[in-house]
Amino acid sequence: MAEPWIDQLSMVLVANVVRMRKARAWTQVQLAEAMTAVGVPWDRSIVGNVECGRRQSFAVAELAALARIFGVADPWDLTKPPECDRCGGAPPDGYICAACGVGGNRG
User: Fold this and answer.
1) Domains of the chain with CATH codes
2) Sign of the CA dihedral 40, 18, 4, 75?
3) What is the pLDDT of residues 69-79, one digit of tens each?
4) Tens digit of pLDDT for each residue in 33-66?
5) Beta-ladder partners of 96
6) DSSP 8-state class, residue 72
7) Which residue of 10, 28, 30, 107 is 20 to 30 Å from 16, comparing CA positions?
């Protein structure tokens, strides 16, 4: 079982990937093709597994490729909660914001 902070980091990264993919109106196939084009061979099933949480670990090369594809200057920014109009990036402890996908810490 992973440490809670690792789960939180993964949830934020996944929420950001989903949010940015949908903001571009890309399909999972289009994201996989973009990843492959920058040298990280992904297919639709990998994107689906990432987005639903079945795949929670990422190689540094994958994080760098996602940042490049989405135009994020610092790859670590992908692991930061987005600004959310509903929860402000900090939902109550034990809850996940339905708007941005960020989960509250369990103290």
Assistant:
1) 17-78 (1.10.260)
2) positive
3) 999 999 999 98
4) 999 999 999 999 999 999 988 888 889 999 999 9
5) 103
6) -
7) 107
